[in-house]
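so my prof wants the structure for this chain in the tokens format not the other one, which i didnt know existed until like an hour ago. anyway here's the sequence
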Amino acid sequence: MILLLPFVFYLYLKTMIDINDKKVPAVRIDPSLDKYDNIVLFPNKLKKANENLKKSGFPKLPEKK
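here's what i got, hopefully its the right format
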């Protein structure tokens, strides 16, 4: 068991490097979810978030030079 640990870590690291080197996203979004584009799923939470933004506003971002 102890001898396998470095090998498993090596395989994990190799897999992560392969994923990071690819230009294709690792996650594919299911096109059937497009039906939810214009639907508000949580209207109460959206209302509360908009009220909080009106009170506090957006943070000031530093200007790019």
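also thought this was worth mentioning. The mean pLDDT is 79.
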